[in-house]
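Q: Entry one of two.
A:
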Amino acid sequence: MTSAKHDHIELEERIATTVDNAWSFISEPGWFINEGHLVEHEITWPGEETAVVTDADHGEFTFKVEKSQCPVHIVFRGLGTDESGGSRTVEFEILADQDQVVVRLGVRTG
C-alpha cells in the first residue's frame, strides 16, 4: 500500500512596490524556476489556462492556472508529478500595506 505524502510551505515577504508591479511579476508562470537569480523563460500557451515553461537549465514544466483574481491572487498547479507521485501547487496572494505590498506564498505537494 502506498501512502501519499503532503507537504506545505508558507512564506510572507514585504516588498517596496505597487500591487500592479508585484502582479506583473508573480502572474508569469514559472518565474520561480531558477537558481537564485531570475532568468527569462520561453513560455507557450497550448491552452487557455495551460502554460509550458522552458528553462535553459532545468527543462520543460507545464502549469495550469487554477485560479486567478487579478491583481491579488493566483494559483499554479504543476501538471507533471513530483518525485513522490503527487502534484505541486504554488499560490501567491498580494496585499497592499501602505507604501509596500505583502506577498504571501504557499506551496503544497501531494
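Q: Entry two of two.
A:
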Amino acid sequence: MTVERFQERLRDLLKQHDDMTQYQLAKMAGVSSATVSKWLTSLKTLPTYPKLKKIAGAFGMTVSELMEEKHVDYTVDGLPQGAEILIENYRKMDRQQRIRFMKMSEVMAHEYPAG
C-alpha cells in the first residue's frame, strides 16, 4: 500500500467511525495527536507494524484488513438475529472494552462450542 493510499484509508475510517476523533485514535495508538495529524497529511513513510496494529485495533480490524487495497464490507448474512447490533456495539467500544470483550468471547467459545 502506498503512503497516499494509507492516508486515504485512514481518513475514510475516521469518517466511517464519526464518533472517533483524531485525539481518541492517538490515545488508542499510543501516539500524540500531532502524529495522527501527520499520518493524515504529511506522512512520508508508513507507520511501523506495532503502530499499524494499534491503529487497526482501534477500528476493530486486523492489520491485513487495514492495509488491504480493497475494503471488504462484512455483512451479517447467515449470522443469528441480533448480530448486527453486536457488531455495531463492538465498533463503539474503546480499546480496553474490546480486549475484555474478545477475552470473554474466547471463554464463551471454549465453554459453549458450536454444535
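A: Comment on entry two: Residues 3-67 form a domain with the 434 Repressor (Amino-terminal Domain) fold (CATH 1.10.260.40). Residues 95-111 form the longest helix (17 residues).
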